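= Tokenised fold =
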Amino acid sequence: MSEWVVEIGTFLVQAVIVMALVGFILLLIMRSKESDNSSLKLHVESLNDQRRSRERRLRVHSTQHGARKRLIKAFRKEDKARHKAVKGDKPTQQQSSTKVWVLDFHGDLKASQTEHFAQEISAVIQVASAEDEVIVRLESAGGVVHGYGLAAAQLDRLRDAGLTTTVCIDKVAASGGYMMACTAHHVKAAPFAVIGSIGVVAQVPNIHRLLKRHDIDVELLTAGKYKRTLTVLGENTQEGREKFIEDLENTHQLFKDYVSQHRPAMDIDTLATGEIWYGSEALDQQLVDSVGTSEAYLVERMAEADVYQVRLEPPKTISRKIGLAVSAGIEQAALKALGLIDAAGWQRR
């Protein structure tokens, strides 16, 4: 029985690989046909209205059938009064002069969302007042220095504009992710969110000895003593290694200085070791200011302010819908295949 499951699992893995290749090719074709950033649409959604709608649905479904009509009628009356007040520019109990703008950043190795993120920030800066707050729901394990340096600089624009910023971390904000998070006036992390990793890492494979064994020479020509320090194909020197490490240390110092500038209360020399802490531990180390989830904080803010989610999205073209469907299908197939393989291993034990 276990051998049969393993064979099925192996077949599924092979099928997933083929689907992934086909899906990747389709995505490349569809992306090449998509228009540029000028076609992006700005979506603004009232989270207060969304929460009110869900609350009403739950109340209606949990009410006895005989009382549901009266409850729905009361809701309609409430909406009519609220719309009338909005039309007359008279705030009601559900309205507030303070607004909260919610942005999302899900980072990859290249921080490729930065361009859209920058445009979202520009839109908010244009309309936000000094009393408003910007909440950024951040999730990133870091990546390339220049990519996350630019992403963090976008958040600095909010500070420069005089807007109060809060970064909420539910899962991870490490390395470049923490570089972004530290720019906020207030950093909130879930109890087990991964925080920190204030360090720099670089890894360069070298196959020079393999090439030499097969009598293959590689000529690396440069103008400038340190144009190349470590290479993949050529022979690395001790001088090149020392220069490479020197560059890493310099980048690390810049990282430390940036964090210290935004969070001067931190003991940066103790914390900038590349280590990570979970949310509750990070609070003790002053890496964050409070512990809690983004959802809980948004609910808290909705009780006293109008909260809007802002995001830029490409138009929902047929090619994009197909691409998303292919991507979701590949992901589901991969999860099922991994589950079968894991189950087969469990059966053999």
Q: What stands out?
A: The chain has a mean pLDDT of 85. The beta strands are 41-46, 99-106, 133-140, 164-174, 186-189, 194-196, 276-278, 290-291, 306-313.
